[in-house]
Please model this.
Amino acid sequence: MSVEYLKLSDPMYEEIENAVRKTYEHSCIVWIEKIKNEELEKKFKEYVLTLNPPVVKRLFHGTSGEIARIIIEEGFDPSKNKTSAHGLGVYFSTRALYSKNYCHKTKGCDYVFMLVCDVATGKTCKGLNGQPIPKEYDSATDNINRPDMYIVNKREAALPLYLVAFYPKV
Model:
C-alpha cells in the first residue's frame, strides 16, 4: 500500500480538483493524496466482474482524517456505518458539497478530509430507511431517476482512490 501527494502540475490533481469544484464551488483544497492499495484494488476488480451490469461510478465520501486512514488501509466496513436513511451500508455522494457535511475535523488539525472513490453500483434500487439492500440488487440510492447518493453494503464494492484535504470554512 502507498500514499503519495499529487503535485499541482499532475493532470490528475486538476481532474480531481475539477470534480470536487464542480459540486463544491468554493472549496479550498490544501492537498490531494493518491491512494494505491493493491489488495483492495484486486478485491474491487474481482467484485465488479460479478456484477450485471458492471457499473462503476466515481463518488465522494466525507469522513475524519483518522477514519480515512483506516479506510485507506482496510477498505470500507459497512457494519460501521450509523446512517440508514436510504438503507444499511456505506454512503457515497455524487456531490462533494453534500459529502462535506460528513467531514469531521481531526483532532489537532485545521483540515477536513474527503475520499474520492470508485464505487461498484451495479444494479441499483430505491433505498428504504433502516432496511438492508435486497439481495437481487448491488446498491441502493436516494432517488432512482436523479441519484444524489449511493449506498453499498459490501466491503469490496468501494475503492478509495484519492484523499482530499481542505479547509472546511469556505
